[in-house]
């Protein structure tokens, strides 16, 4: 399972970044993380911890939100990528799947998938064979290929969003909260697909998740963000066994299952003290 540990090559390095919104709201207070080639890296944390902000900082999507990286550096394969726009970053092999899925509702499922190939110049044949590759991973999308995306289910829309990203032939996918609003069974199904894309296509993933349980089951390495700072990181297998992670993020402690309320109020106290 720990294939990522085999190659030690770092694809993406985020070094001590600070992000400020609207010139005054300091949201990321020095976040550092690495994404290894061929691995699945999880960025975990509750509501408002700064996960989406971190992903948007990497793919340079903060400007439209009046956000700015004011400190630190972001390096992809040894080169600074801070001045690249999202389209240039896609050409380098990095693509983001936004939180909340974002399909083109009036286009069909297949048309949506094809929009993901817009930066490619390797011809129709290659794009068609990748469409088949996406349909192999998501047979459900093949059945729904002619349906208008706006009329498909939440799970199908998440599949379209991931499938569209794969159509750009990425090396690294930044995946924001794929579990959001989906039934547990569907969440597992989507993570299984992410795992097989990772294993079979060698695509690396940085995935932001509130759902610590499922993310640590599929990731190789994890970072936990709290209030704009990384408070813990480690191999996913180790984080799963860590008593604090169990208590605060998995809702279980050694003396049995904790109620979420206890954990929440404790966390609130902890924040106050921090
Ligand atoms: N455009 C913005 N302007 C000002 N503040 C913002 C903006 N976007 C996010 N924030 C604030 O930044 C903090 C981090 O938000 P972010 O969306 O990165 O968190 P998150 O970890 O992705 O949370 P969630 O799990 O709810 O998606 C929050 O306090 C949020 O209110
Ligand atoms: Mg988010």
Automatic annotation (TrEMBL):
Coiled-coil residue windows: none
Domain ABC transporter, first and last residues per copy: 12-252
Keywords: Amino-acid transport, ATP-binding, Nucleotide-binding, Transport
Domain of life (superkingdom): Bacteria
Pfam families (alphabetical): ABC_tran (PF00005)
Gene Ontology terms for molecular function: ATP binding; ATP hydrolysis activity; branched-chain amino acid transmembrane transporter activity
GO biological process, one term: L-amino acid transport
Nucleotide-binding keyword on record: yes
UniProt cross-references to InterPro entries, sorted A to Z: AAA+_ATPase, ABC_transporter-like_ATP-bd, BCAA_Transport_ATP-bd_LivF, P-loop_NTPase
Xref: Gene3D superfamilies: P-loop containing nucleotide triphosphate hydrolases
Name of the molecule in the record: High-affinity branched-chain amino acid transport ATP-binding protein LivF
Source organism (scientific name): Pelagimonas phthalicica
Gene name per UniProt: livF_1
């Amino acid at each position: 399972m720990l294939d990522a540990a085999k190659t030690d090559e770092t694809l993406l390095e985020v070094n001590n970044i600070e992000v400020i919104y609207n010139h005054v709201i300091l949201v990321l207070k020095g976040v550092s993380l690495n994404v290894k080639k061929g691995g699945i890296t999880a960025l975990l944390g509750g509501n408002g911890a700064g996960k989406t902000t971190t992903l948007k900082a990497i793919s340079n999507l903060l400007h439209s939100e009046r956000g700015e990286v004011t400190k630190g550096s972001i390096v992809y394969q040894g080169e600074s990528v801070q001045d690249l726009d999202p389209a240039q970053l896609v050409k380098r092999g990095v693509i983001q799947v936004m939180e909340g899925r974002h399909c083109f509702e009036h286009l069909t499922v297949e048309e949506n998938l094809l929009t993901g190939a817009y930066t490619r110049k390797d011809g129709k044949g290659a794009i068609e064979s990748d469409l088949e590759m996406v349909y192999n991973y998501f047979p459900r999308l093949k059945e729904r290929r002619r349906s208008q995306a706006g009329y498909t289910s939440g799970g199908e829309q998440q599949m379209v969003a991931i499938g569209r990203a794969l159509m750009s032939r990425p090396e690294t996918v930044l995946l924001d909260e794929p579990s959001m609003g989906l039934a547990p069974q569907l969440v597992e199904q989507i993570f299984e697909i992410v795992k097989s894309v990772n294993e079979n296509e060698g695509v690396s993933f940085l995935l932001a998740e509130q759902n610590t349980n499922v993310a640590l089951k599929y990731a190789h390495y994890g970072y936990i963000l709290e209030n704009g700072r990384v408070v813990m990181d480690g191999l996913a297998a180790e984080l799963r066994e860590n008593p604090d992670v169990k208590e605060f993020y998995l809702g279980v402690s050694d003396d049995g299952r904790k109620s979420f309320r206890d954990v929440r109020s404790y966390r609130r106290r902890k924040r106050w003290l921090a």
